[in-house]
Known about the structure:
single chain, alpha/beta, 36% helix
Amino acid sequence: xxxxxxxxxxxxxxxxxxxxxxxxxxxxxxxxxxxxxxxxxxxxxxxxxxxxxxxxxxxxxxxxxxxxxxxxxxxxxxxxxxxxxxxxxxxxxxxxxxxxxxxxxxxxxxxxxxxxxxxxxxxxxxxxxxxxxxxxxxxxxxxxxxxxxxxxxxxxxxxxxxxxxxxxxxxxxxxxxxxxxxxxxxxxxxxxxxxxxxxxxxxxxxxxxxxxxxxxxxxxxxxxxxxxxxxxxxxxxxxxxxxxxxxxxxxxxxxxxxxxxxxxxxxxxxxxxxxxxxxxxxxxxxxxxxxxxxxxxxxxxxxxxxxxxxxxxxxxxxxxxxxxxxxxxxxxxxxxxxxxxxxxxxxxxxxxxxxxxxxxxxxxxxxxxxxxxxxxxxxxxxxxxxxxxxxxxxxxx
Length: 397
């Protein structure tokens, strides 16, 4: 583990505030962005997979991310009319208040990448194909629906199918072809992006591997890159021989998201993953085999932090980290349209403790920022920010 460097306390405090805002969301008038140059200067939210929202707002367009003034930390816009934190526009600037106290001044927003304004050869808007998730990473949701819906076995925290019902037609979000993805990745990489994650809901009849191979080949043909720094985010298969196929296709990392560690809670919260992916033990076996194929720190598993007891979650994190898996706590924000809509996530301090302990595990394991960014789809979580602060890593947004 690297020695702790001296860090700016103001940056630490900004990350702590970001943690609170990620739990509580932000209250604001929905027309507050009417004069912001959304869709030209600043990036708009594209609900391509999961809408991280307590309530849907198809009639309003919000920015994709707040950018904090000191650390330039990214915070997705999580609209909550009941939050004690309020975003206001005063004297030509945006700021965040809690009651009468200003807690964040000079708030800005994520700049819109140039490729958002371009189209693929078949006329598809590239912004609907791949989203800018910060620090050089783009995220492709090839499928904006999950086949588990038809079986009544959706993960209870997930709102992928509800998101599609509200936003897909309005925002022209559709299934992505390999060529659409390749053309978009090419334009994004020309602009300076250098990391892509391919993900989506469960495909009927589980044909992921053939599709992922087609996508990898198309990206390499379009970009001329043999190593395009891609992550294949897949469910746990019953046939582990497919992992070699993903690697041979050109993916440098792979992700299989368990979501929940405790077996009993896993079975209740993720019934489809239990029923169609061999159960929890098969997910564990799959992650270990992925490490065998791709190598240590080349495999990621994300967990929805806040549903199961903290002790259980951290036990899982320690176990998988020792196996060479990069674990990532995803702060549970209770989404509209999910099976758990109306529930509450734990308090900010609960999440903060999970993030601190996760970062300590990463550092003890000797994980580097390049490995962390390379294995995780969205490198802007509180844990990512804390890791960079403690390791003295400076990167652009």
